[in-house]
Amino acid sequence: METILLNVLNGITFGIMLFLIASGLAVIYGFMGVLNLAHGVFYILGAYFGLAALAYGVPFVWAALVGGIAVGLVGLVVELVFLKRLHKQLNEQVLLTLGFVYIFANLARWIWGPYAKVIDAPAIVSGSINIGSASFPVYRLVIIAAGLALAAGLWLFTEKTRTGSVIRAGMDDKEMTTGLGVNYGLVSSAVFFTGTFVGGVAGFIGLPIIPVYPGMVFDILLLALIVIVVGGVGRIEGTLLGAVVIGLIDSLGKAYFPDFAYFTMYLAMIIILLVKPSGLLGRGK
Amino acid sequence: MEALRVEGLCKNYGGVRALTNISFSIKVGERLAIIGPNGAGKTTLFNILDGQLRADDGQFFFFGKDISCMPTYGRTRLGLIRSFQLTTLFSNLTVLNNTMLAIHGILPSRFQMFRPIISYKDLYDKAHELLDSMDLWGRRDELVEAISYGEQRKLEIALCLAAKPKLLLLDEPSCGLTTDESKDISTRIRDLGTDVTVILIAHDIDLVFDVAERIIVLHHGEIVADGTCHEIQCNSLVKEIYMGSEATVG
Amino acid sequence: MGEAKNNTAKWVWLTGRHNRIAYIIVGLFFVALPLFMPPYLQGVMTKALIFGIFAMSLNLLVGYAGLFSLGHAAYFGVAAYTSSILTVRYGVESFWLAAPAGILMAVLVAGAFGFIALRLSGVYFLLVTLALGQLLYSVALKWQTVTGGTNGLINVGYPDLGLPGFTMNAMSFYYLVFAVLVISLFLLYRLIESPFGVALQGVRDSETRMRSLGYNTWLYKYIAFVVAGLFAGVAGVLFRHYSTVLVPTDIGVLASTLVLLMVIIGGDRVFWGPVAGAILITFIVHYSSIYTPERWPLILGGLFVLAVMFLRGGISIYLVKLWKRLEYHYGSIKS
Fold first, then answer.
1. Which of A206, B232, C168, C262 shows a CA-CA span of 20 to 30 A to A3?
2. What is the greatest pairwise CA distance in chain B?
3. Cβ A6 vs Cβ A251: under 8 Å
4. pLDDT by residue (tens digit) across C37-80?
5. What is A2-275's CATH number, 3.40.50, 1.10.490, 1.10.3470, 3.10.260?
6. How far is A106 from chain C (nearest CA, A)?
């Protein structure tokens, strides 16, 4: 009984972690229609910038913010200098982000080296709690809490505020939002900043669970993609649901069908793409 | 012989009723114009007839054959050809290649994967003939994006004619053209033989009266009038719809 | 804000007598290559030409059909693996058996994957091709008994053509690859110029119009997908002989993105652009690994960004312009 519980908890933790990873990508894709292939790179950059802050003695939580903001600024530069000039050319925009994967991942490797970086959870949350005879790290509960807080925050923002409804409208119909006199350029820059910021923060706070190294950029991207495809784009609940579903599939898969675990995520993605391309909770396109 | 018979077509978008109970028929060789204010449902009707949209209710028959569920390319092979209001040409290909593609669309050799397309002598001659009739032969090696808008509209029509149409659905053929260019277009439409049936959507009243023998007026997705040009001109409801402006011309 | 000048680069046709001179010069260059290039560079060029075939196959989708696939290495890899497995595990020595088997496998997989992928378009198409490629990658990774997993599949040497008294060496392998490249270029060129090829470009420019002209556009995209898979397979079976070991990364996203880089940097709008891109990138990676170890992704990424932003025709457009200028000067000297 408790192994099942443990597997489920691990699955949920992984799922929430996936949500943290994927939500930045979901926001950018949902509003701008741009698939930011460099998402994985921003993730690791957040971890690296945050680590640099930690080395200067900045406390954990602030380091996470520093990491996120630094990454957000990088993202902003990419958006302002490059993406904006490819207005309305979606294929070219996606290709551009691919180019930045190569550039930034290699720069990261140059500066910080190819080996994985990992840190311990901050002291106050570094213990474990007991579930039956097994122990479950407290930090994972922190991750779950952080993820849920992010989900709640994003949900409140998009559903309950005016800027939020603009973004939601943009997700459904870009032309309309420009027609309403909204400064699409300003909002899209802000969205891009936010998306990369969230990705960067996720990279840093995930460090105690997921070590970071330059070679993982495509793996992170793929995980995020699977989540947004399965969960659907346009609603935060969708991304959250997709993330948790994938997390559970992966965790239970690894526990009960170890040989197939790697497949199941991709199979789930392909099946969803064929049956309901807009995702479990996505708005039909 | 009926070229087209439409029965009870309905189309809804969410809560909006784009088309309600559209029924009419048209004989071979007839020239019909469909007019109406913006949003009346004219382009939606065309989109259903050519297969881009599926109607929610109703059917339609092409020369007696039910084509309501046939894919677009199947309808083309039967002879139902449509032109587009927004120029929909192959912008990265030459005028000649655009035309050759149009001619090839209904031929089995369109799947040939080895012989160069320009080596098909008889098709090349047909393209020559077609482009000549539109005064476009001299521009044949230009990319479509390099020719003028008026020339593009003519090429639109040339492409439709290349596919051996029995029924032509012309969506705003003179859209954006000068008066002279419009007159040119109406002459060309009039010169199409009696074996070609034409349904025309147009806002240009001159074009309509030049070409059409019969007019159907759509308003809010419904047919509100169906008659000869003269009958429509005298129809007070139509005048009301158009605020008494254009319908009094001619 | 400045608009990036890209979509105005036209698809370029280089036919005509004076352009044949260019082709002859280039052809002679490649034929005479072993005479002036040291063996280790010859090897790099061999690899470059193999990737040239691979990149051309992808451009059939990207440049001519307008389909951006991020999983094209799947067919390249599956052909390489199949051909290898037949030789290494089942003792099939003959090139004439192992290679067609590999290509056939690539075609079958492309046939199956194309069926799935073409149910979607745009970004979703991109995603599903990526997922399918990764699926195959995970098969290569996990099916250790057959594929050797991360340790890879060790290959032994050059193709056995079964010709009495003749064993292939580096130079003859180079000529084999060059010959296959030339044949592939010829076939692809005919394909592009044929009714099918022009129709495919029509589908790229306006699928709606093509449908209303009577074309079953799905079928065109599907056939293009399978043909692209076929030529990727051709490159794959050659690659297997070049590379001493085959690893799962040859199937996955890293390989798929690298070949996309070759297509874009080389230019997807000039017929031979992808080959130029393949040659350029292969040599950049080679030299960079000597002089600036592990910096090549940075260089490639930079070139790629430049290509996307400012020169959507790739380097091949530059080369074409250069040739035209040479032509002009030569012409004015003659007269």
1. A206
2. 61
3. no
4. 888 899 999 999 999 999 999 999 999 999 999 999 999 999 99
5. 1.10.3470
6. 6
Residues of chain A whose beta carbon is less than 8 angstroms from a beta carbon of chain C are: 29, 33, 35, 82, 84-87, 89-92, 94-96, 98-107, 109-110, 218, 222, 225-226, 229, 259, 262-263, 266-267, 269-270, 273-274, 277
The DSSP-derived string for C259-293 is: HHHHHHHH-SSBTTHHHHHHHHHHHHHHHHHHHST
Structure tokens given for C149: 């997993």
Q: Which of C119, C301, C309 sits opposite A102 (nearest CB)?
A: C301
Low-confidence ranges of chain B (pLDDT < 70): 242-250
Q: What would the DSSP string read from start to end of B206-219?
A: HHHHHH-SEEEEEE
B84 neighbors B168 (Cβ within 8 angstroms): no
**Distance from C-alpha of B39 to C-alpha of B49, rounded to nearest angstrom:** 17
Q: Are A281 and A238 in contact (CB under 8 A)?
A: yes
Q: Average per-residue pLDDT in chain A?
A: 83
CATH of domain B2-248: 3.40.50.300
CB C215 to CB B73 under 8 A?
Answer: yes
Which residues on C lie below 8 Å from A90 (Cβ)? 122-123
Q: Do B93 and C213 touch (CB under 8 A)?
A: no
Cross-chain Cβ contact C212/B82 below 8 Å: yes
**A53 and A233 Cβ atoms separated by less than 8 Å:** no
Supply the ipTM of this predicted assembly: 0.86
| Residues 19 through 78 of chain C touching chain A, CB cutoff 8 Å | 68
For C157, the 3-state DSSP assignment is coil
What local confidence, expressed as pLDDT, does residue C281 receive? Answer: 93
The domain segmentation of chain C, as residue ranges, is: 17-334
Cβ-defined contact of A92 to C312 (cutoff 8 Å): yes
- In terms of Cβ atoms closer than 10 Å to its own Cβ (0-12, 13-18, 19+), residue C124 is middle
From chain A, pick out residues whose CB is under 8 angstroms from the CB of C138: 262-263, 266
What residue in A sits closest to C68 (Cα-Cα)? A91
Name the 3-class secondary structure at A134: strand
Give the predicted TM-score (pTM) of the model. Answer: 0.88
Environment class of B38 (CB within 10 Å of its CB; exposed 0-12, middle 13-18, buried 19+)? exposed
Please give the Cα distance from B219 to B153 (Å, whole number).
Answer: 27
**Considering the domain C17-334, what is its CATH architecture?**
Orthogonal Bundle (1.10)
User: Which of C216, C219, C197, C207 lies closest to C115, judged by CA?
Assistant: C219
Chains with at least 3 CB pairs less than 8 angstroms from chain A:
C
Here the tokens at position C148 are 């050797």
